[in-house]
């Protein structure tokens, strides 16, 4: 039977081939270029934080706050890799300079109060008044005696919410923007070797998953008694629970596979393979990570003296680096590298050959996830910095003040140095892996080799450090909702849209994929002019933000 419309079918096939070639990138972009673009998210958060500190958002109408939030924390990210892609430094300055100008009057007010011997808004005494200084010292001593937070307590870290929210927003916007010509080709995923913005996105998504997953590990470790640990590890039960968690992800992967094949949607086979997609990678992570957890739990029960957060974090780091190093050695000393890159992919090939990129790159993503969990163990829980007593304060306000002082001190003395040290270590390892003549390796997201793993880990630790540093200049807040205090709660200082994306990250990522497919099936994105493209992208970003905020307001949290 003849094709009823061979011309239309030929045109559709031509468009599909053009789209496949268009979304691929051979050269990538420099790390400096990538860093300047991703720095926009932190710059936007700095301006938002400064506006909150100056109380410029407090008296505003709710709709105005959301509009400002959308412009700063969504549109700025979108503009960074579209209309301002050639001038990201200008966009960063346009966000940072107003923040600095808004902070200057606060510094002048603080110096003025100090010169007059008056207390600052933080309630601390100044050097000009010896009596006030003595009272402050006495209050500090009482605060140390009335400790509220205990080491190991899970607390809300606003900078973690901002970091993950910014990453999810950038990922959701980029997967659609890449289909338009306004999105520079250097930011699209590279074919085999090199770095790009979208290569950074997939790795950061996995790292953040490990980061937030550390909270469950911390809770499990706190609830398990030492006697129960010595009795043994219920490996079968834990593996069954992990596999059950993977089922929805596999279903999403199968649904995406069927829709892509049936709709004849443009796809790049060398990204993950013929049948594999990112949802399958996410689906295989829980059982493999649980297997590592079981092994580490057995090892920890035999060495009960080393059960602190730093010891547990180090074990995850060692395992992650060991897995990645063994994989790299196999790549470079066997035929595996040639098999992944150049093996023929014929209709008669087996499933391993057809999906080799997705299957073998999973090893690198597993290492990234474990390293994210290592970072999460250190920053998701409170770590004590001074010896404190557990006596209950008489007043709730005093308890909130004590708690606040504890967390501020801990952020300065523990969290920031920890993130900076981890950034330096992994950045040094990346430099050694890619620049030393003996190794001279090249980053490959397609392989997820050790330079790619080190790059992702170093970048995300640096981003976390930067967001934590920005949090330090923001408004004061307390972490316990049960305490009434004049300060804001930890949740109130976070961007509402960032909080909404962080709350339902994976569900919104799925929605973004569906929206991307819908736009591509209804519009010729490849030939769309820049003005029309930006209108579509801003509308898509607004719709996604409205859904995210609506789910957050309704208290909906979808666990996939």
Automatic annotation (TrEMBL):
InterPro entries: PIGW/GWT1. Its EC number is 2.3.-.-. Keywords: Acyltransferase, Endoplasmic reticulum, GPI-anchor biosynthesis, Membrane, Transferase, Transmembrane, Transmembrane helix. Pathway: Glycolipid biosynthesis; glycosylphosphatidylinositol-anchor biosynthesis. Pfam families: GWT1 (PF06423). It is found in: Endoplasmic reticulum membrane. Its main location: endoplasmic reticulum. It is a multi-pass membrane protein. The chain crosses the membrane at residues 34-51, 63-83, 89-106, 165-184, 196-218, 239-258, 278-299, 319-342, 362-380, 414-432, 452-473, 506-526, 532-551. Residues 112-145 are annotated as: Disordered. It is an enzyme of class 2 (transferase). A acetyltransferase, which acetylates the inositol ring of phosphatidylinositol during biosynthesis of GPI-anchor. Probable acetyltransferase, which acetylates the inositol ring of phosphatidylinositol during biosynthesis of GPI-anchor. Belongs to the PIGW family. This is GPI-anchored wall transfer protein. It comes from Lithohypha guttulata. The lineage of its organism: Eukaryota, Fungi, Dikarya, Ascomycota, Pezizomycotina.
